[in-house]
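Rotation project, supervised by the postdoc (A.L.). Task for the rotation student: set up a whole-complex structure prediction and record inputs and outputs verbatim in this book. Inputs entered:
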Amino acid sequence: MYDFTYHRASDVADAVSKVRDTGEGQFLAGGHTLIPTLKLRLAKPSDLVDLQGIANLQGISASDDGVTVKAMTTHATVAESKDVQDTIPALASLASGIGDPHVRARGTIGGSIANNDPAADYPAAVVGLGATVKTDQRDIAGDDFFTGMFETALSDGELITEVSFPKANKAAYYKFKNPASRFAIVGVFVAQTGGGVRVTVTGAAPCVFRVSEMEEALASSFSSDAIKDIKIPEDGLNSDIHAQADYRAHLVNVCARRAVDAC
Amino acid sequence: MPTVSLTVNGKVVSAEVENRTLLVQLLREKLGLTGTHVGCDTSQCGACVVHINGDAVKSCTTLALQVEGTDVTTIEGLATNGELHPMQEAFRDNHALQCGFCTPGMVMAAIDLVNKNPNPDEQTVRRELEGNLCRCTGYHNIVKAIIAGGQAMGG
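Outputs recorded:
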C-alpha cells in the first residue's frame, strides 16, 4: 500500500480537525474495508485518523423506543448485546452474520455504513428500520443516507457518531451470502413498524433500495404468500461473477419471503 | 519512523515501523515470530489470526500502529515451559493438519472460539470457523480437535 501518516484521535472534535487539516485525510474505524482497499492501492489517503481511542464512540444504549449504537461499536458487540437482542433481535442477527468472527471483532457499524458497499448488510437495516444517522454536524434520515454505490450523504470530513434504530413490531433479515466473503449476493430486510411495512434490499443493486410493491402487499396481508408473485425487474441489478441480474431478481423474491416467514 | 510499543506473548516490546506496516509484518519481520502466516492477504483465510487483548483477529488487516499498548498473543506464546497448550495438543492428537500452513491461525481461532463458547458442539465449531480456510484436510479432524481441545481446556 502507499504510505500515509497515521494519527490517533482523542475525541470527535480532534478527529474531525485532524482530517480537515490534512490534504486527503480519512477516518480509520475498524479498518476491515479500508485496509484491504489500501493494500489494493484503490485509495491513497495522505493521512489516516484512527478513531478507536475515542471512548464516546463506543457502546449501545436501549430504551422502549429502540437502540442507539455508537459508530465505533463492533459487529461482535452488536451481535452479542442483550439490549439489541431483546429490543431488535433482527439487528443482532444481522450483525452476527457479517463476515466471520475475526472480521466482526474489528469491523464497526460506522465504518460499514460510511463505506456503503453495495453488498454490505447494515444498509438494509438502516433503511429497513427507518434509522437515523447522527454525525458531528447533523441528523441524517436513513432514507436519505445512502445515495449510490459507495456514496453517502456525508460531506468531506463529516464523522458519523451514532445510529439510532427505532424498535419494530416485527423484523427479520434474510441473506443469500457469498460462501467465501459472506457478503450479501442478495439480502432482504423486512420490518413491520409503526410507520408501515418496509422491505429493503442489499447486494442486488449498486445501492440499497426499497420495494414499494412488496411493502404495500405486506401492509394488507403480512404473509409470504402476499408477495410470492411480485417480480423484481432485473434492469439496473448487478451482474458479476457471483450472480447474473436475473438470478438476483429471483433471489430478491425468495429472500423477501424467507424474511417474512422469519418475522 | 514512528515507534510502536505493546506486549507480545507476555513481553513488552518496542519497534520502529512505517505508518503502513501491518501487524503481521511487525510480528514476522521485526520480531521474528514467523509462526503467524500470511495466506491470502485479503482478510479471508485466517492464517494470520492472532489475539489482540484476547480477541482473535486478522493481523494482515490491522496496522501495527493500531495495536499500540495492547496485549498480543501469537502461536509462539501458547506453550508454557515446553508443554503445548491443550488446543495444540488436541490438534496433534487428532491429526488436525496436513501441510500445517493454516494451523497457527486455526489454533488461535479455536482458543478464542472455546473461550467464547465453552464446550462447543460440532455445529458451533463449524460456524465459528468460517474465517479460517484449510485447503488440505476437509476440516473433519480440525473440528474433532477443537471439540477435544475445548474439553481439555476445562469447558
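Student's summary: Residues 3 and 16 of chain B are 4 Å apart (CA to CA).
Supervisor addendum: The domain at 3-76 of chain B is CATH 3.10.20.30 (Ubiquitin-like (UB roll)).
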